[in-house]
Amino acid sequence: MSDVYTIENLDLTELFTEVQAVDVHQLKSERSQFLNVFEGKMSVSEMQFTIQLALPSHFPLKKPMYFLKNRQEAGFIPHIEPDGFICYSHDEGVLLDRNNPKGIIHESFQRAKRTLEEGVLKLNSEDFLVEFEALWSRQEGICRVDAIITPEERFKKILVFHDEKRRKSILLDRINESIVQYLNNLYSSRVLDEFKESKGIYIPLRKSSSLRPPAFWETWDIKDYRHLINNNITASTKKRLKQYLKKKLIQKGDEEYIVLGIPILNEQRALIGLRLSDFRAEQGKGKHFPFLHPLRKKQAAFELSPLDIKRHDKGYLLNRTQGHSRISDKRVTVVGLGSLGSRICFELAQAGIGRFTLVDKDSLDIDNVYRHELGISDVYFKGTERYYHFPKTEAMKRAMKNKFPFIEVDYETSDILEILHEEPQLLLDSDLVIIALGSPTEELYLNEMIRQMEWTIPIIFTWLDPLGLGGHALSTKKGTKGCFQCLFSRPDAPRRLIANQASFAAPGQNFRKSLAGCQSVFTPYGSIDALETAVMATRLALRVLTGEEKDNPLMSWKGDPSELLRQGYHLSKRYEFSSDKLFDTRFLYKNENCLICQTGETP
């Protein structure tokens, strides 16, 4: 692979006419440091464009870049940036054959040409909608603000909080306890007390509207925006906007914010904004405060700033993480908030679950910090006269709300056995119960009792094998075959309990260890083992909640047995199964004579 690239060894005359090498400083872009720049003519739909081909300093590890020398030459078309850059391919996931730089150039040339051609022929005009927010954000003088606004199809008033000293603003369409907590966490401030408050409006444009943002070289004034709004809103929106403008007067020192909901593809809306500030009388006009709102009539001079809106609304953020909108209202009860249960809570929240009930009777112990989702700051809280241990439930709620303020978290710092008898409704109100106690005796009892309840509640039991050997998750539901009891009994002797048949460790071995006597007894496993099992259990939970999983599978993953064998322990026969076989046999654990799920009797 040569480090010297020329017109000849790249065969650029096959691509361009009038091609020549030019000084890299002739390229007016700061996207990269460049090795070479070549300039030539590209034929697109009977038109000739002057194109600059730039090879980044790390080419061919980095893709070549193509620029329109005159960015206005093709008009305002999608995928052409303010510096003339032709966005023909995204960097994420791109694979380049670094041993074939000529091939990279020729393939990328065709893609850049196709992008330009589709724009010139208006074949990709819909992309203006898809890229609306991105194109809007390229304007000169753009101001960046945060927003928690749910794009709806109705006109509404909004609030704006602004830290003038640090030049940070956030726009809100509602305010409640969760949002206040979110703001305080986001800015490390008491926002309602420390930020200046302003007002604004949200205006949804019609779904049928055919829109494009201002070209990079254009500057829209209030007349342009007034025309855009009035020609692209429904009759009901126009009526509500007119009512608002009739009452609204601009006073000295006011700032007015306008957010537009732009209809894009797949029933989504982009958000763009305007800030109107520094209102003042125009010389010679004889008008004084108060003024009419500029969307009604321009009576004053003012500064108009386009706003690039960084969205914080839950629906938008979940769409970026493949969050399931259909599970956002589901309630999951997690019983047991140890290293496994705590991680499952966070994984489920990140997947889009919106409501939780947490159950655990214990406090976080410093012994478990290195394998728990909580940390050192969750061990104590400071009272007026002494330090107290944080209950895991309360600490988990605090940690989860700090990261995901829009979720709802209830908790019970109680023994699940007491709850089962005294407050069973707590479980009945759930869409799914996940049990991660690590206590098979209690879990077998819960399996039996929950199946006897009036309502059909899906349950997932999940647990770890010792010493990194693996982890398991089993789903079960009343009225279906396959339950936790099946793992602890055989068809020929259903009343006799045996060791868990899912385990990858041979039965009859004691893995419990102690570092400081009986009070510190624990089962050895690592944080990564808990995380792996939590991910597996979360995937199963999502499949159950969305209805994709109709049966009751036993899911298992296998770890490295080296440490277990080094310590003289033994593997079970099941460990010999391949990962494929573990999956293929996920329903074969069911005991045809199980006293719980087959006959409903009590053992």
TrEMBL record:
Keyword Transferase assigned: yes
Pfam families: Prok-E2_B (PF14461), ThiF (PF00899)
Keywords assigned: Nucleotidyltransferase, Transferase
Domain Prokaryotic E2 family B, chain residue ranges per copy: 31-140
Signal peptide range: none
InterPro entries according to UniProt: Prok-E2_B_dom, ThiF_NAD_FAD-bd, Ubiquitin-activating_enz
Domain of life: Bacteria
The keyword Nucleotidyltransferase is annotated on this UniProt entry: yes
One GO MF term attached to the UniProt entry: nucleotidyltransferase activity
Gene3D superfamilies: NAD(P)-binding Rossmann-like Domain
Domain THIF-type NAD/FAD binding fold: 321-495
Name assigned to this protein: ThiF family adenylyltransferase
Species annotation: Virgibacillus salarius
